[in-house]
């Protein structure tokens, strides 16, 4: 999700419309915002993408690069200097406690750096017409609606108690199916002094009070009821899925070569995002459960994890362990038949856009809500219960791959893939949303559309 604020033209003869995309220095924020940047630039805008650089971020283009995209240009310019940490600062890649430290640091140091950035572009003759900033998290409209109704006291929510079956009041959140305590995003009941909760509240205030547009990484067909209901409160514009599987088709890497050896829909792909870290015991149970299926599997284990390869079974080449992979490329490969996922929103939309059924293993944040929708609303997966246990892993994988409902799940997954493709195609719902935003920026800038 991106929050958008506008700046007025700064001269009587305005230069071409210039959009600045500002991302948090987290891979899950960077990736979808880059896709949005390419789509905006392709329609004739000058787009500058900026984030705080560090060694843990993966970029195709370096600082100062400019790439022609369609009728426009996508530039890359880092936000740095002043009180910001240097790119080699290890706290950028620290675990959860370090993440809180990073957020506090950005709150303190980034505003001044951004102000300098904007002055620099104005002095260089390319003033910024519009700033698109990635909000606290890439939420779905359903999750955004839950947060909005909770923090503005628009609905009755269950108290923070161990009864996960406690319901949110019937019809309390318009556009959503029945929701229970166990389905709620974790920050609903977080303590007020938690910095992530404070960031969430600040984001919601900004969305309501200052945002001219709220661009959401979703598409109308996926979340129609939630989008339509939330538009009574916020200027929602769906522009997703911000995922371009077609970009991966001609490229090959080590994972692609390994996948090429397997038949269609035969491989289990397992990845839990850039922040979730399994314990050694969890990894051992996961690997044993996957091995018990007898199916080939591709397992992503973070490079900073203490989960060693010796925990994995001897498998005659059926297991591939990697520290990182290009997830969109893997999900788009014909050999992948199942995705075991933590249900971050990026992973959720990528699975749907790729037509791959899922085994859900949500941990925190918006993941329980996304898992509920994948299972009960979109009908493309099953839930892997906690704690991680090998028998449950093998049972859930088999249920998705070959169980009584597997064919129906695959059919629904294919339908969501077709719907996602149609949304971003010319004239589709998200294509119209992007074009409407571009037209508004051009009009605001006072420049003609050539």
TrEMBL record:
Tell me where on the tree of life, at the top rank, the source sits. Answer: Eukaryota
Q: Which CDD domains match?
A: GT1_Gtf-like (cd03784)
Please tell me whether the keyword Glycosyltransferase is annotated for this protein.
yes
- What InterPro entries does the entry give? UDP_glucos_trans, UDP_glycos_trans_CS
EC number(s) on file: 2.4.1.-
Matches recorded under Gene3D superfamilies? Glycogen Phosphorylase B
Alphabetized UniProt keyword annotations = Glycosyltransferase, Transferase
Q: Give one GO term, molecular function aspect.
A: glycosyltransferase activity
Concerning its family, UniProt says: Belongs to the UDP-glycosyltransferase family.
Could you tell me what this protein is called?
Glycosyltransferase
Protein's organism: Urochloa decumbens
């Amino acid at each position: 999700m991106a929050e958008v604020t506008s700046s007025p033209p700064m001269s009587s003869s305005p230069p071409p419309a210039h959009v600045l995309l500002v991302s948090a220095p987290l891979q899950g924020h960077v990736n979808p915002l880059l896709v949005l940047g390419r789509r905006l630039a392709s329609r004739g805008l000058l787009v500058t993408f900026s984030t705080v650089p560090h060694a843990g971020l993966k970029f195709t283009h370096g600082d100062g690069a400019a790439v022609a995209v369609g009728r426009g240009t996508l530039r890359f310019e880092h936000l740095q200097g002043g009180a910001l940490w240097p790119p080699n600062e290890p706290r950028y890649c620290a675990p959860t406690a370090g993440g809180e430290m990073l957020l506090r640091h950005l709150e303190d140091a980034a505003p001044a750096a951004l102000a300098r950035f904007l002055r620099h572009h104005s002095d260089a003759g390319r003033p910024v017409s519009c700033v698109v900033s990635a909000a606290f998290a890439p939420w779905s409209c359903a999750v955004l609606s839950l947060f909005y109704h909770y923090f503005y006291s628009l609905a009755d929510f269950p108290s923070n108690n161990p009864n996960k079956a406690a319901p949110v009041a019937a019809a309390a959140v318009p556009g959503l199916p029945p929701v229970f305590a166990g389905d709620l995003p974790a920050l609903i009941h977080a303590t007020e002094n938690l910095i992530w909760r404070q960031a969430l509240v600040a984001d919601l205030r900004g969305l309501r009070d200052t945002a001219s547009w709220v661009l959401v990484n979703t598409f109308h067909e996926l979340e129609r009821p939630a989008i339509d209901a939330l538009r009574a409160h916020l200027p929602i514009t769906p522009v997703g899925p911000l995922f371009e599987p077609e970009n991966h088709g001609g490229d090959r890497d080590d994972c692609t070569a390994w996948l090429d050896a397997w038949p269609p829909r035969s491989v289990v792909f397992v990845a839990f995002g850039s922040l979730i870290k399994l314990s050694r015991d969890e990894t051992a149970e996961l690997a044993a459960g996957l091995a018990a299926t007898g199916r080939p599997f591709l397992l992503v284990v973070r490079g900073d994890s203490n989960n060693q390869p010796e925990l994995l079974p001897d498998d005659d080449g059926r297991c591939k362990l990697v520290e990182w992979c290009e997830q969109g490329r893997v999900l788009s490969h014909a050999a992948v038949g199942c995705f075991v996922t933590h249900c971050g929103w990026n992973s959720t939309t990528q699975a749907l856009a790729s037509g791959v059924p899922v085994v859900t293993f949500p941990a925190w944040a918006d993941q329980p809500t996304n898992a509920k929708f994948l299972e009960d609303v979109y009908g493309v997966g099953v839930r892997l219960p906690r704690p991680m246990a090998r028998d449950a892993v093998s049972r859930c994988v088999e249920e998705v791959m070959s169980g009584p409902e597997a064919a129906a799940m695959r059919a629904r997954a294919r339908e969501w893939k077709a719907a996602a493709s149609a949304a971003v195609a010319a004239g589709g719902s998200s294509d119209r949303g992007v074009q409407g935003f571009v037209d508004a920026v051009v009009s605001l800038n006072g420049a003609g559309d050539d």
